[in-house]
Write a structure and sequence with these properties.
By secondary structure, the protein is an alpha/beta fold. It has one domain: Rossmann fold, CATH 3.40.50.150. The protein contains four helices and six strands; from the N terminus they run ββαβαβαβαβ. A six-stranded parallel sheet has the order 1-6-5-2-3-4.
Length: 153
Protein backbone atom coordinates (compact mmCIF):
# COMPACT_ATOMS: atom_id res chain seq x y z
CA UNK A 1 0.00 0.00 0.00
CA UNK A 2 1.42 3.39 -0.96
CA UNK A 3 0.51 6.47 0.98
CA UNK A 4 0.64 10.11 -0.04
CA UNK A 5 0.64 12.48 2.89
CA UNK A 6 1.01 16.20 3.38
CA UNK A 7 4.47 15.63 4.83
CA UNK A 8 5.45 13.68 1.72
CA UNK A 9 6.97 15.44 -1.24
CA UNK A 10 5.41 12.97 -3.69
CA UNK A 11 2.62 14.09 -5.96
CA UNK A 12 -0.03 11.78 -7.33
CA UNK A 13 1.70 11.73 -10.72
CA UNK A 14 5.10 11.00 -9.14
CA UNK A 15 3.80 7.86 -7.44
CA UNK A 16 2.69 6.58 -10.87
CA UNK A 17 -0.94 6.42 -9.90
CA UNK A 18 -2.92 4.24 -12.20
CA UNK A 19 -6.48 5.47 -12.18
CA UNK A 20 -7.98 3.36 -9.39
CA UNK A 21 -11.11 1.39 -10.13
CA UNK A 22 -12.70 2.32 -6.84
CA UNK A 23 -12.24 5.50 -4.79
CA UNK A 24 -13.92 5.87 -1.39
CA UNK A 25 -14.18 9.33 0.15
CA UNK A 26 -14.68 9.22 3.93
CA UNK A 27 -15.66 12.38 5.86
CA UNK A 28 -16.65 13.74 2.47
CA UNK A 29 -18.00 17.04 3.77
CA UNK A 30 -18.82 19.25 0.80
CA UNK A 31 -16.39 17.43 -1.51
CA UNK A 32 -13.05 19.17 -1.05
CA UNK A 33 -10.98 15.99 -1.32
CA UNK A 34 -13.03 14.90 -4.34
CA UNK A 35 -12.39 18.20 -6.07
CA UNK A 36 -8.70 18.15 -5.12
CA UNK A 37 -8.32 14.65 -6.54
CA UNK A 38 -9.92 15.74 -9.81
CA UNK A 39 -7.51 18.70 -10.04
CA UNK A 40 -4.47 16.59 -9.20
CA UNK A 41 -5.33 13.56 -11.32
CA UNK A 42 -8.31 14.10 -13.57
CA UNK A 43 -8.62 10.41 -14.53
CA UNK A 44 -9.55 9.49 -10.94
CA UNK A 45 -13.24 9.32 -10.10
CA UNK A 46 -14.79 9.00 -6.66
CA UNK A 47 -17.00 5.90 -6.47
CA UNK A 48 -18.49 6.27 -2.98
CA UNK A 49 -18.65 9.16 -0.55
CA UNK A 50 -19.88 9.15 3.02
CA UNK A 51 -20.36 11.63 5.80
CA UNK A 52 -22.63 11.66 8.82
CA UNK A 53 -23.44 15.37 8.39
CA UNK A 54 -26.64 15.63 6.35
CA UNK A 55 -26.22 19.36 5.62
CA UNK A 56 -22.72 18.76 4.24
CA UNK A 57 -24.14 15.86 2.21
CA UNK A 58 -26.73 18.17 0.65
CA UNK A 59 -23.98 20.58 -0.43
CA UNK A 60 -21.87 17.65 -1.71
CA UNK A 61 -24.81 16.45 -3.79
CA UNK A 62 -25.16 19.96 -5.22
CA UNK A 63 -21.43 20.05 -6.06
CA UNK A 64 -21.38 16.51 -7.51
CA UNK A 65 -24.94 15.78 -8.68
CA UNK A 66 -24.05 12.40 -10.20
CA UNK A 67 -22.66 11.06 -6.91
CA UNK A 68 -24.55 9.14 -4.28
CA UNK A 69 -23.58 10.26 -0.79
CA UNK A 70 -24.08 7.81 2.04
CA UNK A 71 -25.25 9.33 5.31
CA UNK A 72 -23.93 6.72 7.67
CA UNK A 73 -21.57 6.26 10.55
CA UNK A 74 -18.11 5.07 9.61
CA UNK A 75 -17.98 3.15 12.89
CA UNK A 76 -20.72 0.86 11.57
CA UNK A 77 -18.62 -0.34 8.62
CA UNK A 78 -17.45 -3.94 8.68
CA UNK A 79 -14.39 -5.39 6.90
CA UNK A 80 -16.58 -7.18 4.35
CA UNK A 81 -18.76 -4.12 3.59
CA UNK A 82 -19.04 -3.65 -0.17
CA UNK A 83 -18.91 0.15 0.20
CA UNK A 84 -15.28 0.09 1.29
CA UNK A 85 -14.03 -2.99 -0.57
CA UNK A 86 -15.31 -2.15 -3.99
CA UNK A 87 -16.93 -4.41 -6.49
CA UNK A 88 -15.71 -7.89 -7.24
CA UNK A 89 -12.82 -7.76 -9.66
CA UNK A 90 -11.59 -4.22 -8.91
CA UNK A 91 -7.87 -3.94 -9.44
CA UNK A 92 -7.10 -1.02 -7.17
CA UNK A 93 -8.76 0.97 -4.44
CA UNK A 94 -8.04 4.43 -3.02
CA UNK A 95 -9.33 6.01 0.17
CA UNK A 96 -9.61 9.78 0.59
CA UNK A 97 -10.22 11.15 4.04
CA UNK A 98 -10.19 14.32 6.06
CA UNK A 99 -11.16 13.15 9.55
CA UNK A 100 -12.09 15.52 12.39
CA UNK A 101 -9.10 17.62 13.40
CA UNK A 102 -10.28 18.69 16.87
CA UNK A 103 -8.72 15.71 18.70
CA UNK A 104 -5.28 16.69 17.35
CA UNK A 105 -5.41 20.45 16.92
CA UNK A 106 -2.80 22.47 18.82
CA UNK A 107 -5.57 24.92 19.72
CA UNK A 108 -7.90 22.22 21.05
CA UNK A 109 -7.75 19.97 24.09
CA UNK A 110 -5.39 17.56 22.26
CA UNK A 111 -7.14 14.48 23.62
CA UNK A 112 -5.97 12.51 20.60
CA UNK A 113 -7.41 8.98 20.58
CA UNK A 114 -9.32 9.69 23.82
CA UNK A 115 -11.59 12.16 21.99
CA UNK A 116 -14.86 10.58 20.84
CA UNK A 117 -14.54 12.36 17.48
CA UNK A 118 -11.52 10.15 16.80
CA UNK A 119 -13.48 6.88 17.07
CA UNK A 120 -14.35 6.63 13.39
CA UNK A 121 -10.72 7.08 12.30
CA UNK A 122 -9.59 4.49 14.84
CA UNK A 123 -12.26 2.15 13.52
CA UNK A 124 -10.92 2.51 9.97
CA UNK A 125 -7.40 1.84 11.22
CA UNK A 126 -8.59 -1.23 13.11
CA UNK A 127 -10.46 -2.79 10.17
CA UNK A 128 -7.81 -1.95 7.57
CA UNK A 129 -5.83 -5.22 7.94
CA UNK A 130 -9.08 -7.23 7.87
CA UNK A 131 -10.40 -5.88 4.55
CA UNK A 132 -11.10 -8.20 1.65
CA UNK A 133 -9.66 -5.64 -0.77
CA UNK A 134 -7.51 -3.12 1.14
CA UNK A 135 -6.75 0.24 -0.47
CA UNK A 136 -3.62 0.64 -2.56
CA UNK A 137 -3.55 4.33 -1.67
CA UNK A 138 -4.74 6.36 1.31
CA UNK A 139 -4.76 10.13 1.00
CA UNK A 140 -5.34 11.66 4.43
CA UNK A 141 -5.46 15.35 5.28
CA UNK A 142 -5.38 16.82 8.77
CA UNK A 143 -3.80 19.49 11.00
CA UNK A 144 -0.15 20.13 11.81
CA UNK A 145 0.98 17.71 14.48
CA UNK A 146 -1.48 14.97 13.53
CA UNK A 147 1.34 12.66 12.50
CA UNK A 148 3.08 12.81 15.89
CA UNK A 149 0.11 12.23 18.17
CA UNK A 150 -0.43 9.20 20.42
CA UNK A 151 -1.90 6.76 17.88
CA UNK A 152 0.62 7.75 15.21
CA UNK A 153 3.15 5.65 17.09
Amino acid sequence: MAAATSSSTSTLNEIHLDSPDYVVEFYSGIGGMHYGLQLAHSACRVSVSMDINTLANAVYTHNFPDMRVYSRSIEGLKPDDHLINGKQGVRSVMWLMSPPCQPFSRLGLQRDDQDKRCRSLLHLIDILPKLLNPPDYILLENVKGFDVRVRAE
